[in-house]
């Protein structure tokens, strides 16, 4: 009855999964804060969503972009920035597409035509324009001006937002390209349009523009070192935590009570149900990680063909998934700088009640606890792998399980 073609789970594909779990605060931020404030002309910062691999940051913003599109907003696709490429060119091309949506390509104003031709040149040459002698403004200013024009067009339409999603921002290693891009986006977010109100008074309003940046946690340090307070003023940074087991359980509840609809060969519809103990088994294996949640669900679905997913199906499927789950967590560990890796390995060797900074520092070979303080702070605030409480504990429960048990086997 159930086949791989019917599976609603999608691990690691950067798509919006059909079985959605958690991230309520970020979704509500878009629906209740960012979009309504920007549409009202009130300034609101861009959003930087960071997290370790598998935390669901790209899928989260893709879901927001889908909601924006369904509401009639103008949203770019996910603009992924591969390592070593020019982000200015990528964003310029996306803005040209948005300008067509906004109707700017048919505008008769010479100023708009000149601007579009300038951005077309930027889309072709990118950051290299700024290292040659050029007449006129730097390339990034053309991006700012075009984004402002698109924002003006959206404002005239009323109740229409412009949304950009730039992904893998940690790959922007060139500090000049990173600085130009952040300034171009930040200047457009900070821009104010003077609008005449009924009766004659004028008011300065922010444009209906939203910018989302997504990437690995180290981007915050890269951008902060480059732009400092200016970046913090214009972008609000959130690092994603693990998802609560209660949210993962709630995401699967429909399977338990109503079943998941699948098509039959005869063209009808049937439903696949999830046993309650299978629901608990999937949540237990996920350890709060969106990727592992989708992986466990997918492999449980593949483990049988009837209309009931049992705990035995979850166990059987997980045996096949375990190598991939282990490799996923190992990649997170391998990315850590030596001191951070040493810190969490020392922390894992201690009993949970003994995990104080002093004990961890001693275990890691530090002469004094204060030597390990900055490392602990980065692992907590930047990476969300640990929590500095009394005692210290792991926030990233899959990392904890990998270091302290035989998980995922």
Task: Report what the structure shows.
With 409 residues, the chain is an alpha/beta fold. The chain has three domains: 216 residues, 3-Layer(aba) Sandwich (Rossmann fold), CATH 3.40.50.300; 90 residues, Helicase, Ruva Protein, domain 3 (Orthogonal Bundle); 69 residues, Orthogonal Bundle (Arc Repressor Mutant, subunit A), CATH 1.10.10. 53% of the residues lie in helices and 14% in strands. The chain has 16 helices and twelve strands. The strands form four sheets. It has a five-stranded parallel β-sheet, sandwiched between helices. Strands 8-9-10 form a three-stranded mixed β-sheet. Strands 4-5 form a two-stranded antiparallel sheet. A hairpin with a 5-residue loop joins strand 8 and strand 9. Helix 3 runs parallel beside helix 5, helix 5 packs parallel to helix 6 and helix 10 packs across helix 11. The protein is globular, with a radius of gyration of 24 Å. The model has no long low-confidence stretch (mean pLDDT 90).
Question: Short description, anyone?
Answer:
The chain has 409 residues and is of the alpha/beta class. It has helices spanning 24-39, 57-70, 87-101, 110-125, 139-157, 175-190, 218-227, 229-234, 245-257, 276-286, 290-302, 311-335, 338-349, 357-363, 369-382, 397-404; strands spanning 46-50, 74-80, 162-167, 192-196, 202-206, 209-215, 235-239, 260-263, 269-274, 308-309, 386-387, 393-394.
């Amino acid at each position: 009855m159930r086949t791989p073609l019917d599976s609603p789970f999608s691990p690691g594909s950067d798509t919006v999964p059909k079985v959605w779990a958690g991230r309520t605060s970020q979704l509500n931020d878009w629906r209740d804060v960012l979009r309504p404030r920007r549409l009202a002309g009130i300034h609101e910062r861009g959003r930087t969503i960071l997290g370790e691999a598998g935390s669901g940051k790209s899928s989260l913003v893709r879901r927001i972009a889908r909601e924006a599109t369904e509401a009639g907003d103008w949203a770019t696709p996910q603009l992924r920035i591969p390592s070593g490429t020019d982000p200015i060119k990528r964003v310029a091309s996306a803005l040209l597409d948005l300008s067509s949506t906004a109707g700017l390509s048919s505008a008769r104003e010479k100023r708009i035509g000149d601007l579009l031709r300038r951005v077309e040149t930027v889309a072709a040459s990118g950051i290299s324009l700024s290292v040659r002698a050029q007449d006129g403004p730097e390339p990034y200013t053309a991006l700012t001006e075009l984004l402002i024009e698109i924002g003006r067009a959206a404002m005239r339409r009323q109740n229409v937002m412009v949304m950009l999603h730039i992904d893998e921002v940690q790959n922007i290693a060139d500090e000049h390209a990173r600085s130009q891009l952040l300034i171009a986006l930040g200047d457009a977010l900070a821009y104010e349009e003077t609008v005449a109100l009924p009766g004659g008074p004028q008011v300065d309003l922010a444009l209906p523009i939203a910018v989302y940046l997504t990437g690995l946690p180290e981007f915050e340090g890269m951008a902060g070192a480059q732009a400092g307070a200016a970046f913090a003023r214009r972008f609000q940074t959130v690092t994603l935590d693990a998802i609560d087991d209660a949210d993962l359980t709630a995401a699967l509840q429909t399977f338990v009570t109503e079943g998941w609809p699948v098509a039959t060969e005869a063209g009808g519809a049937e439903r696949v149900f999830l046993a309650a103990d299978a629901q608990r088994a999937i949540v237990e294996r996920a350890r709060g990680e969106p990727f592992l949640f989708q992986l466990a669900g997918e492999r449980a679905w593949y483990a049988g063909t009837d209309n009931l997913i049992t705990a035995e199906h979850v166990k059987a499927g997980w045996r096949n998934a375990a190598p991939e789950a282990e490799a996923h967590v190992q990649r997170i560990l391998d990315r850590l700088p030596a001191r951070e890796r040493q810190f969490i390995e020392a922390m894992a060797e201690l009993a949970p009640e003994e995990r104080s900074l002093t004990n961890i520092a001693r275990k890691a070979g530090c002469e004094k606890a204060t030597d390990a303080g900055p490392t602990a702070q980065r692992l907590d605030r930047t990476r969300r792998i640990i929590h500095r409480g009394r005692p210290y504990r792991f926030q990233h429960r899959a990392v904890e399980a990998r270091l302290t048990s035989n998980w995922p086997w």
